[in-house]
Description:
Shape: globular
Distance between the termini: 51 Å
Strand order of the largest sheet: 1-28-27-26
Number of helices: 3
Amino acid sequence: MRPYLLQGHERPITTVKFNYDGDLLFTASKDLVPSVWRTETGDRLGTFAGHKGTVWDLDCDRFTRRLLTASADASCKLWSCETGECLATFVHKGPVRGVVWAEGSNMFATISDHFVQHEPKICVYDCPLNANAADIDLVPRLEVDLPKVGGKRVSPTNIQWSAFNESLVVAFDNGQIRLYDPESGDVTFEFEAHEKKINRMRFNRDKTLLITSSADFTSKLFDPFDEYHHLKTYKTDRPVNDAVISDHKDHVLLGGGQEAMSVTTTAGKVGKFETRFFQLVYEEEFGVVKGHFGPINALDINPNGRSYASGAEDGYVRLHHFDKDYLDMKDPVPEEDEVDEDDDEEDADERSLVV
C-alpha cells in the first residue's frame, strides 16, 4: 500500500472528505484553516482561511463548486472551491458541530451545540446552486430546537440527509438517532443505536446502508429502507471515531483508538491507532493499516475505490493508495469453505469403506 503523509495542519484532524469525483480531498482540523489536496499526488492546492475557531465538519457539493465548513466560532461559511473566496457566512447561536449538503446541492442543514441560554439547534438553509453570493438568504428556512431528554441535555454529534432528502438524520451523544421532517421539523422516527455517544455516522453512496461509530467500542450497520433495522455489528476493543463503507468491495473501514487524553502515556502499539478492515457481511476483521501516532478521528474512502484517507489526533492526514493485491482480492465465502470441508470428510469416509 502506497501512503502519502499530508503535512499541512498544525493541530488534530477533525474530518477528511473526498469530493464526488474523488480527485480532491478536503481536510479540516483544530487549526482553523481547512485545506484541499490533489488525490493523485498528495499536493496541497489551497486553503480556506477565515474561521476563528475549530472547524468541526465540512462538505463539498456534488459539482465541487462550493464548500461548506462548520466551526466552533458559531458560524458556517460557504466557499468557492475554485478561488477559496468566502461567499457567505451563516451565523448561529452556538458552536456549529456539523454541516451537510442535501441531494441536488440547493439547500443544506447544520447542527449547533448548546451555548448559554440557547438550546442545541438544527437549521436548514436554502442555497440555490446558481445563486449569486449577494442573493443567498442568510436566515434559516427551518430552525428546530433540541430540548432536554428526561431532564438531561443531549447534544447532536452528526447530521445527514436520507435518500431523496426525505428526512434529516441526526445522531446524539446519548446513543440515539432521530429522523426529522425537513419541512416541519417534526420527529418522524427515533431509535437507540448505541449505549454511548455516537461519534459519527455515514451513508454509503446510494444511501441504502447507514453505518455508525460509537464510544461503546462498536460500529453498527442499519437498513434505512426497513425502519433502520439493525443488520450488523463490528466489535473492537477501543472507541470507534469513524467508519465508512466501501462502494466497490463488501468491506467496512473503522478508525479510532485510545481516548486522546490518555495518548501521552501510551505507546502506539498499545493505543491501537490503526485503520481496521472488516468484511461487511461476515463481521470479521481481516486486516489493519498502521502509521498514526494518535487516535484516528476521521476516515473516508475515495469514490473510485482505489484509495482512502485517515486523519488523526497527531495532526497528520495519511492518504493511502491501495495496491494491486488488495484491488484484485476476492473475499472468501465461509459457506463454500464449510461445504468443501464436508465434501472432503465424505470422500474420506467413502475411501475408508472401500478399504
